[in-house]
UniProtKB/TrEMBL annotation:
InterPro entries xrefs: P-loop_NTPase
Name of this chain's protein: ABC transporter related
Amino acid sequence: MMKENGLAIVLTSHYMDEVEALCNEILILKEGKTVFHGTIQEAIRTSGKATLEDAYLNFAGEEDWI
């Protein structure tokens, strides 16, 4: 209903399980710049990773933190 009315909710989170449950599209920022914008499936596919968590770490350049 919100989408049909041109409305959106902006959610900020580092909890990828929340993001997967609540979001249709995601935006990943690194140092204030957009490094990814699209669906969760697109993020996983584009990153070549198996999970959204791993895709996020890849796009954010934080894979070495694991």
